């Protein structure tokens, strides 16, 4: 389903947004890397830029703006999970041991937004759509192909996402180990995301977090372009059952994944 025209099922990753230290430079970098186009948005939306791939919305890039007296937010990608009632989802987040950091708040007539952290500390967003459903293209080069939560307490994270978002977490297959697929009520046989134990795969100072992975047509070319732009390669291209993957960090410090789909 590369093109999306209807609202996402609740719990499904439906949008990703980058809070950028240098919005214009980030737009240029990701535009070159993924073939995105976009313009700085109107002032009433804080200049938020909706980036497109082949005429369909794929991601957002906003300038980092701090409320008065607060520190500037980090340069980072945020995954937004779909909701059909942002207020009710916010209440469930709090009841499940998470923390609501922002919202629920209306974004004009586009929808209602929440930013929260789960019971293990991973930050994510919630999007309750009105005029804007989220990404209009997925699973194609230059668009999101996967989002997952990396946590240091897998049972707690799994319990949280079921209680707060209705996502059931279980192993996709016997080889998945400490990695669980996240399944919606609408599609109980197809994972919409995942949650995995960080273990020793990450340094101890790295907190729980959501990771965005983008599909690319040629991973070697993407990594070369990334390096030319002074990006960092944390994990060199590696073959997996789902395709070849690399873990990258953009020039300002935001990690993300890149995948060239295709089984090993």
Automatic annotation (TrEMBL):
This is VOC domain-containing protein. PANTHER family: GB|AAF24581.1, GLYOXALASE-RELATED. InterPro entries: Anthracycline_SecMetBiosynth (IPR052164), Glyas_Bleomycin-R_OHBP_Dase (IPR029068), Glyas_Fos-R_dOase_dom (IPR004360), VOC_core (IPR037523). Residues 12-129, 143-261 form the VOC domain. Pfam families: Glyoxalase. Signal peptide: none annotated.
């Amino acid at each position: 389903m590369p093109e999306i025209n209807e609202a996402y099922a609740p719990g499904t990753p439906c949008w990703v947004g980058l809070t950028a230290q240098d919005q214009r430079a980030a737009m240029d970098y990701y535009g070159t890397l993924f073939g995105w186009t976009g313009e700085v948005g109107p002032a009433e939306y804080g200049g938020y830029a909706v980036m497109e791939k082949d005429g369909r919305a794929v991601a957002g890039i906003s300038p980092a703006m701090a409320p008065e007296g607060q520190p500037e937010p980090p340069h980072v990608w945020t995954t937004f999970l779909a909701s059909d009632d942002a207020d009710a989802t916010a209440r469930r987040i709090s009841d499940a041991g998470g923390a609501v950091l922002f919202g629920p708040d209306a974004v004009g007539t586009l929808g209602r937004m929440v930013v929260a952290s789960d019971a293990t500390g991973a930050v994510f967003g919630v999007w309750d759509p009105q005029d804007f459903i989220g990404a209009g293209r997925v699973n194609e080069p230059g668009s999101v192909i996967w989002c997952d939560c990396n946590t240091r307490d897998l049972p707690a994270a799994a319990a949280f996402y079921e209680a707060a978002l209705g996502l059931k977490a279980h192993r996709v297959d016997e080889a998945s180990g400490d990695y669980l697929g996240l399944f919606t009520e609408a599609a109980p046989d197809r994972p919409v995301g995942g949650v995995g134990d960080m273990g020793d795969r990450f340094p101890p100072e790295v907190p729980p977090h959501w990771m965005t992975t983008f599909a690319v047509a040629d991973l070697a070319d993407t990594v070369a372009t990334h390096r030319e732009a002074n990006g960092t390669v944390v994990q060199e291209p590696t073959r997996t059952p789902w395709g070849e993957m690399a873990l990258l960090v953009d020039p300002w410090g935001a990690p993300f994944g890149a995948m060239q789909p295709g089984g090993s």
